[in-house]
């Protein structure tokens, strides 16, 4: 990773820190800095290796080629923001420079793209990569505002090119997981995406990641703060994906055409939280793991560009696999993927039998934080 001397020499003072000095800084939430000598990232790596996953399979080149010529959007609260930071750093070798830029230079549009209502953190920004590729983030925590302001603004800004983009989004943690406020937002956003899919980006709804406060579901509560970040019990609430994902489940098929399933992959890593903050994680850790889950989804669902040649032999999409199963006597397509260095990939799938935790029905592939 580039050090701070490489990412920050162009800064114009502390006021410019967000845009000029953020790439691969990860808000200084490095596991080793927060918990010196604990080896938390190495512990994550050992756990994933124990589960049998090839962690060195994905390269930044592969993910870049999948999104080349497109904008990969992230939209949501602080958890989605930290996911963006991880992806931005993973792809830093393809950046034009280390200067983040506003999504748009239009001041009125910028206001519409900075709508966070619960916190004071209001920003939308992009890192420009080579070959007209971008990774961008919008801090937003309100489904009503997304539908009313953000998506119409993006439509004006991007025009027909928006349909070529991919967006990963989530909202929920800033609200109680009840059918009232949050349930109504989920229902409204699901109807909105379904009705306007023809001009929107390819939409990926992401699970609300687990918290690990000392409560039956791990949810935050004032009484649970300061009591550590223990493992989640394997109770019914956890098996259902926690209260937020349970509430969202009826809408997932309409919140996006695709579903990034991160709950199971993240449940075991209670020890990577920034204790006493049992919501956010240190890095490298779960945020980096989600990169591998995202790349697997892009690959298996045929999202973005097909990656072939020197990077890998593209696997059949989910639809192609299903069609193949319906044709008796046809030879099954090759399932192995070849990546640089001669390493072979492994098809995305669930945890090995007997090691599943959490949200039933979710894929629990975790392809490692080892490269950070």
Strand content: 5-15%
**What percent of residues adopt helix (DSSP H or I)?**
25-40%
**Mean of pLDDT:** 81
| pLDDT < 50 runs, ≥5 residues | 309-316, 327-372
Q: Strand sequence of the main sheet, in spatial order? A: 2-3-4-1-5-6-7
Number of strands: 9
Helices, by number, come to 15
Largest sheet: 7 strands, mixed
Order of helices and strands: HHHHHEHEHEEHEHEHHHEHEEHH
**Distance linking N and C termini:** 7 Å
Protein architecture, described:
The protein is α/β, with parallel strands linked by helices and about 375 residues long. The protein is built from 15 helices and 9 strands. The longest helix is centred in the middle third of the chain and has 16 residues, at about 145-160. The radius of gyration is 20 Å and the shape is globular. The protein starts with a helix and ends in a 47-residue tail after the last helix. The relative contact order is 0.16.
Write the layout of secondary structure elements.
Blueprint (H helix, E strand, L loop, with lengths): L3 H4 L9 H4 L10 H4 L5 H11 L9 H8 L3 E6 L1 H13 L10 E2 L4 H6 L11 E6 L3 E7 L3 H16 L7 E4 L11 H16 L5 E5 L29 H4 L2 H7 L3 H4 L2 E3 L2 H4 L6 E2 L2 E5 L4 H15 L17 H8 L47
Parallel strand pairs: 1-4, 1-5, 5-6, 6-7
Antiparallel strand pairs: 2-3, 3-4, 8-9
Helix pairs in contact: 6-14, 8-9
Short description:
It is built from 15 helices and nine strands. Helix 6 crosses helix 14 (286-300) and helix 8 (143-158) packs parallel to helix 9 (181-196).
